[in-house]
Every structure is written in structure tokens, then in C-alpha cells.
Design brief:
The protein has about 210 residues and is mainly α. It has twelve helices and no strands. It has two domains: about 120 residues, no CATH class; about 60 residues, Alpha Horseshoe (Serine Threonine Protein Phosphatase 5, Tetratricopeptide repeat).
Amino acid sequence: MNRTLALVTFIVVFAQLSPADAADVCGDLKNFYGPYDYQTADSELRARIEDYHFTPKVAALQAGQSTMDIGADIAYTLRVFPNHPRALYAMAELGRRQKRAVPVKAGYSVECWFNRAIRFRPNDGKVRIVYGIELLKDGKKQEAIEQLKIGIDLDPQDGNAQYNVGLAYFDIGDYDSALMHAKKAQDLGYSLPGLRNKLEKIGKWK
């Protein structure tokens, strides 16, 4: 089963689960160390985990740090900091690179790591934005829009989210919404030209 099909299957099954059953599938958040909120953690606590488990080479998916397996180091980071946005991004990219719903030594599927993050801090806009961007990469446009809209509601000044939800709206043919979010991204200083070029090409840029 390829990764996309595996993730779709997981989403369908997961949507039918109660919160208690979801915890059974994706694990209890309790941890021998934490969990801690990454957004409010002080620099000392962050360094204690990142210096040994989420180093630059782990974040870049080059090699593991505490073990030989990149997935194990990212998973350790996410057990301590379930809402660590860069670690969530790295886990999603690792799954994509390996073409696996459950990356090697990750313990849980990529979808589960996002589920754990949302259960831990449902109002963390950065988690929603990373999740939405990763869903968009996997071609799940409507699900991406839902997550990105939540992220924008929580953090309306995030130009990256505005830009990516604009891309998603473009892909489903809602060009007015795509234009609105492209303008907002531009106003926030997010100047990647891709979305504007797409809108110009079909005569929708104003």
C-alpha cells in the first residue's frame, strides 16, 4: 500500500473513532518526560531536548543524533513537545521521503503525530498551519483548507498560511478566495510569486 492510500485509509478509519479510541490508536500523551508546550517552553528546556534529539542534521533529515534512526529522534522530540512545529514538519517530510505512513522507528503514523499535537494544544495555530501545508502537499485540498483556516483564525498574521490556503483555493477553482488570500499574503510581506503567477495566467489577478 502506498503512503497516500495508507493515509487516506487512516483518515477514514480515524474519523469514525471516539476520542478515547483515537487515544488508543495514536497513543496517550502522557510521557515519562513531559509533555510540554513547545510554544511556552523556556530556552533551557528546549535546548535540553533539541541539542540531543532535534539537531540541525535531524531536522534536515540527514542522520539521527541519539540513534542511527532519524525517525526515533524526531519521535522522541514529539513525545516531549507534541506541538513542536519544525519536528512535525520533519516527521511529515520523512514519511514522504520514505513513502511510508509510519516512518521507520517513528512509532506512529504521520497522521497520528498531528493528531497528538492537536489533542495536546487544539488552539496552537502553528500546528494547524504545518498540518494544512502537509495535507496540501499530499493533495488533500479540502482538508488542507480546513486546517489552514483554523490556523489563520488563530494566527491571522502568518503570511505562509495565507499563501498556502490561497494555493489550495486555486486548486479547487475558488479563484476569488485564492486572490483574497494572495493579497493578504502579499500585504504581510510573503512575496513568493507562484500564486500570483497562477492567477495572472488565467486573468484573475487584480
